[in-house]
């Protein structure tokens, strides 16, 4: 429930004007939150000049007061930071500290979600990474065999993937500790899951930014998400929540490579109306 401290409230009306759910009204010169259509977005907490609004559903100790020094990033620096990021597939043999893992997940947790549903979850795989790898390669091998035996599938790109997946599984059986074209010997995988692909994708984007800021590297593995589609064995192993799906798979570790510059891209396709 959202609450208003009437002793602190000065009736400025800022919370009411900013409430997207139209759940706040002024009564006798004080803010009154009806808690009928409220989606707990926290705008009223953020905008109140007197810190009169609080909630008993979340930890109010997490609320931080704005200061320019702590919260401002120069736009040009941020844009350059985004341009410089690279997908990393070459990792050092070094564990990722739990403190850094928690910061990566915090970046996802504080990402916006539609109607403040906050329906994104995270699965961190470290100790059982090799077990997961085996399950994923088994699934990919089966999908590859299906592609190659299905006469209705004529896409040559899919067939190239099919041959790759079958060979990856064969190589794993021959030497489980050998080459790794799935996780590239990274020490950590974070799966971002949700019933809503947009919410999970937005969270993943912010998580990638903080990953790079922490001196780590990452890339998004589409192979794992593909392998988990309809695969009860993988989903049970991961303890995937009901109605959730794996939206992204972040393979994370300390880079064993150093990039020296950004790279070019195609021009943006923009329609101005």
Automatic annotation (TrEMBL):
InterPro entries, alphabetized: 4Fe4S_Fe-S-bd, 4Fe4S_Fe_S_CS, Nitroreductase, Nitroreductase-like
SUPFAM superfamilies in the cross-refs: 4Fe-4S ferredoxins, FMN-dependent nitroreductase-like
UniProt KW Zinc keyword: no
Protein name per the record: Nitroreductase
Listed PANTHER family: NAD(P)H NITROREDUCTASE YDGI-RELATED (PTHR43673), NADH DEHYDROGENASE_NAD(P)H NITROREDUCTASE XCC3605-RELATED (PTHR43673:SF10)
Record bears the keyword Iron-sulfur: yes
Upper taxonomic lineage: Bacteria, Bacillati, Bacillota, Clostridia, Eubacteriales
A molecular function (GO) term: metal ion binding
Family of the protein in this entry: Belongs to the nitroreductase family.
